[in-house]
Write a structure and sequence with these properties.
Strands 1, 5, 6, 7, 8, 9, 10, 11 and 12 form a nine-stranded mixed beta sheet that branches. A three-stranded antiparallel beta sheet has the order 2-4-3. It is globular and about 70 Å long. By secondary structure, it is α/β, with parallel strands linked by helices. It starts with 5 loop residues before the first helix and ends in a 20-residue tail after the last helix. It has one domain: 3-Layer(aba) Sandwich (Alkaline Phosphatase, subunit A), CATH 3.40.720. Helix 1 packs across helix 9 and helix 2 crosses helix 9. It has 14 helices and twelve strands.
């Protein structure tokens, strides 16, 4: 939706509500949600390139700060030596459930072994073998996220976080070139989504700015390129594009409204005719009439959206939980891309439950399998739809967490590990620089195992943007204002080599 000024918007809303009088439909909160979330207009901007074919990006945001060094774990040596020994020590050893010593290490025997760069051995949390409907006797290296990694369909980006510029312990101590509000949930969530961590005033996100540039590639102005199953968010908000917020069941429509009176109930017909009467009134404020017409058009678009997605029947099994149901809905939207006239789409899903200052191990035993089941089902659904090479999913999170235990869990940190998945991904690899030693002596360690990121969010965002159809030129700098601190103009290779 192209934004009007706040004053005009509020004036028209008040006038419309006044004109509606006692009509209960006009006070339904779904009315405002539908208008704000569904109405989108064509952008006046266009990328210098002219992308062809279909592509989609999916962001799964793990809100609260995933302790991702218990998701991807070094597996060299043993508990007393090598990289695993360093991990075991800095995590405080094992919590055996008897002495309640607060140790956060995952036992080496429970890890799912994977190969990493430079012949280094790594392990995944055992919950990352979870898969909906999997044979309980199946080899865990072939199921869930572990199976996707070993099949080359999924990779990890190591020690990634929000950066303004390359940072060392010395520049950190001098407090130069740092993101605002380090270790703060609100700030680091904002920074991941805006791609502008030196400011709290940025009101657009890098996904929104990318949609602004490429919006002319889509032919349906009634449905935004950016579709959210996590409510309104900064990541998908641009100057000309706002998120189209839906639920796991589809788009929300005004209660009782139906575009087709011949198939609606008596109550539905009453509501619909009430809308018609409002639109037929003579307005002293034309803005109010325009607002009402937009509402009607947006509601009709919502019904058309639901009609299109409801025709998509998937045989892939999804768990009846979050985020599986959200990703199932995204798969249906992707399946309806032709009916919706969409060639580029950006999706956002938010999953909470990662702020584990206490009961970290127990929380991970629940949360990581949920993510594993969801990602495996979603990938399988893209294969079923024939678009696995055209859809890329990535995870994001506020920050990682302290490697040192607080006695019951871990606290706010900085650099962490994220997932990238899709048929176009050169999977089975770990990108970036996983720290060679998770020790207090590591120069990246700012204390308590808070690690300075060695890969910036900008590099991953640029990787996705270039794959999506943006050129390595001024367009990329519009999307990511700090990108030239990490990736040169005119560079021929992608920033990380993932896609």
């Amino acid at each position: 939706m192209r934004r009007n000024s706040n004053d005009s918007f509020l004036t028209s809303r008040r006038a419309l509500l006044k004109a509606a009088g006692s009509c209960g439909m006009m006070t339904n909160t779904s009315l405002m949600a539908t208008l704000l979330n569904l109405q989108a207009t064509k952008s006046m901007m266009a990328a210098e390139t002219n992308p062809t074919g279909y592509k989609a990006i999916v962001c799964l945001f793990l809100s609260g700060g995933n302790d991702s060094y218990n998701m991807l774990i070094p597996n060299e040596g043993d508990a007393t030596s090598g990289e695993y020994g360093h991990y075991h020590t800095i995590r405080g050893g094992f919590d055996d459930g008897v002495n309640n010593d607060g140790g956060l290490a995952i036992q080496q025997s429970a890890l799912l072994p994977i190969a990493g760069p430079d012949s280094r051995n790594f392990g995944l949390h055992p919950g990352l073998a979870a898969q909906e409907g999997a044979d309980p006797m199946a080899d865990p290296s072939t199921t869930g996220i572990a199976g996707l990694y070993n099949d080359g369909k999924l990779g990890f980006v190591a020690n990634i976080g929000s950066l303004v510029e390359r940072t060392t312990r010395e520049t950190y101590n001098a407090r130069t070139g740092l993101p605002i509000g380090l270790f703060s949930h609100a700030d680091l969530q904002r920074h991941w989504q805006t791609g502008f961590p030196q400011s709290r005033s940025q009101i657009t996100g890098w996904g929104g700015r990318m949609a602004d540039l490429l919006l002319s590639t889509n032919q349906n102005p009634s449905v935004s390129m950016n579709i959210s199953l996590g409510g309104m968010n900064l990541f998908q908000t641009g100057s000309d594009v706002v998120p189209y917020a839906i639920g796991s069941g589809g788009a929300t429509v005004v209660q009782g409204y139906s575009a087709d009176l011949s198939t609606s109930s008596r109550q539905d017909r009453m509501y619909t005719r009430a809308m018609d009467n409002i639109l037929d009134q003579t307005y002293s404020d034309l803005l109010a009439k325009s607002f009402a017409e937009s509402t009607r058009n947006s509601t009709d678009a919502a019904l058309s959206f639901n009609d299109a997605t409801e025709t998509i029947a998937l045989t892939t099994a999804f768990a009846d939980e979050s985020p599986s149901r959200h990703l199932e809905m995204i798969a249906k939207v992707i399946g309806a891309r032709t009916q919706l006239n969409q060639t580029r789409q950006i999706f956002f899903v938010n999953l909470g439950g990662w702020d584990n200052h206490t009961d970290l191990l127990t929380a991970h035993e629940t949360n990581l399998p949920r993510v594993s089941r969801a990602l495996k089902s979603f990938y399988d659904a893209t294969v079923e739809l024939g678009v696995e090479n055209d859809v890329t999913l990535f995870t994001a999170s506020d920050f990682a967490r302290t490697l040192g235990s607080n006695g019951q869990g871990s606290d706010h940190a900085w650099g962490g590990n994220q997932i990238v998945m899709g048929g176009a991904v050169s999977g089975g690899q770990i990108y970036g620089d996983f720290p060679a030693e998770l020790t207090a002596a590591n120069p990246l360690n700012l204390g308590r195992g808070r690690l300075i990121p060695t890969t910036s969010v900008d590099e991953l965002a640029a990787e996705l943007s270039l794959w999506f159809g943006v050129g390595n030129n001024q367009d990329l700098e519009t999307i990511l204002p700090n990108i030239r601190n990490f990736y040169a103009t005119g560079a021929t290779g992608s920033p990380l080599g993932i896609l």
